[in-house]
Amino acid sequence: MLLAQLSNGTMISLLDHYTKDQLKQLSKKYGFYCPSCRESVLMKMGDKKAWHFAHRTNADCQADSEKESPYHLEGKKLLYEWLNQHETDVGLESYIESIAKRPDLLIRNRFALEFQCSTIDSSLFKQRTTAYFSSQKIPIWILGKKRMKPLSPYVYKISSFDWLCATSYYAENGYPEMLYFCPQDKAFYKLSYIVPISSTKVIARLAKMPLSTCTFTSIIHPAKEAPAKYPIQIWLEAKKRWRLSSFKQNTLPYRYVKHLFLQHRSSISFFPGEAGIPVKYAHMIETPCFLWQSWMLLQFLSNTPLGENVSFDTIFKQFKELVKLKVFKPREFPLISGGHYSFAIMNYLHALCARGVLKRVAAKEFVKTREVTLPDTMEEAIRNDYRMTFTNLFIDASKHVSGKM
After folding, report:
1. Of the residues 23, 72, 187, 250, which has the maximum number of CB atoms within 10 A of its CB?
2. pLDDT for residue 24
3. Structural contact between residues 275 and 266, judged by C-beta atoms closer than 8 angstroms
């Protein structure tokens, strides 16, 4: 904590540049107390870690959630100073009594900002987020940049906790984004147009935004961006890895889809090129897209004669049943409204229309116009992948202009 209360009720902020002697005198005369639970707190004034207040070991403060690292303390300090340059109503560690929560920063008495550097339990994250909403506060979760794990150009590893912090400022966009802050660089970093490859691996566009060029309004109401452009080879490599490694996987989704391929006298490695297509709202489904898309093709289209109807409602009903059976797993987004995993299913049906497999004849009805065949060899499968992987986000590498930082 950077804020404490004296026995006489005076609030003390460590951002007010007290000297060590001044703080010692205040501690001796008045003592330091937590503004939330009113328990006595310790003054930490070491040489290695930023000065801060801390609860005693046996303290039980409902507003105190986790220990603060030097990285977190410095980030909170910088964000507070930055906000005070642009805003007139900024609270440092303001206690919201109605919900017994103390966000890192409270802006306009409306936005509860949390600079999250450590992993907390998902149930605690959802409980805190729900509490903020219930008190008419809009939660803003900004991740510490140390949590960002680049694997290769455009490819990042995202933990299940980090996914909870994803936002989507423009619902029609169909792709989430995540905001990070680095106190060492004094800059925000944003991952946008996030396309999941697996439950923890994504393709995303990275943008660096120096603190000096940003305002709070530009963070909470960012300007619309032009769509990202990714080299198609990144997605083709992902599909190739699925083909070469999926037969080794033994989790329930893989076992279920493998069984479907066996019924069609084939192997999961030879899933059709029309499966594994990156579509909008695919992030709403944690299960890799080639699995649930292969299921749709084998379960519904392969048994449907040309010219016959394919119904979204029928597919969605059975998908929900498989969610209940834990074959497919939707992803939770506590901070995103206006999205649902059904959107991914509908967008995949539209993608099949663009590839000549279906034709839309009503809002939720389609007609089958082309057969989908299973490849016989890996070479044929990879050729089909290149032919079928075309979207607004993925372009031929030979035409790509690098946007990598």
Report:
1. 72
2. 83
3. no
